[in-house]
Amino acid sequence: MNNTSICKKCGAPIVWLDTPRGRKMPADAALRAYKENPEGKNSVLNDLGEVIKCDLRFEGTPTGMGRIPHWATCPNADDFRRRKGGR
After folding, report:
1. Higher per-residue pLDDT: 60 or 47
2. Residue in 82, 75, 66 with CA at minimum distance from that of residue 2
3. Which of 30, 56, 70, 77 is 20 to 30 Å from the Cα of 5, by its Cα?
4. Residue 85 domain-assigned?
C-alpha cells in the first residue's frame, strides 16, 4: 500500500513504497516514464518497490512508469543516511 506524505527536510510530496524485503522506501510522488536499461544512470521504483536501472531520457516507447527514489532528488538526503557506528 502506498502512503503519501511530505519530506521532513525539503517539503516535497513523497510516497512510501513497500519493498520486496518488507521495508518502506520514500519515492517522489510524481510518476515518470522510463526505459529499462541495466547500464542506465538512473533508477526508478515500480509499484512493487523494486529498483529498476533505467534511462529517463530516451526515444521511443517507455518500458513503464515509476517513481524516482527520494534520496536521489532530496537536497537534504545526507541528513537521513546512516553513519558507521549508528546515526
Report:
1. 60
2. 66
3. 56
4. no
What single DSSP character describes residue 80?
G
* Residue that has been written with the C-alpha cell 523494486 in this structure: 50
Please count the structural domains in the chain: 1
Determine contact, residues 43/36, Cβ cutoff 8 Å. Answer: no
CA 29 to chain centroid, in Å, comes to 9
How far from chain centre, in Å, is Cα 37? 16
Residue 29 lies in a domain: yes
**Range(s) of the domain holding residue 49:** 3-80
Q: Are 26 and 14 in contact, with CB atoms under 8 Å apart?
A: yes
Backbone angles phi, psi at 79, to 5 degrees: -65, -20
- What is the distance in angstroms between the CA of the first residue and the CA of the last residue of the chain? 28
Q: Which three cell numbers stand for residue 46?
A: 515500480
pLDDT tens by residue, 19-38: 999 999 999 999 999 999 99
Residue 18 belongs to some domain of the structure: yes
Whether 86 maps to a domain, the answer reads no
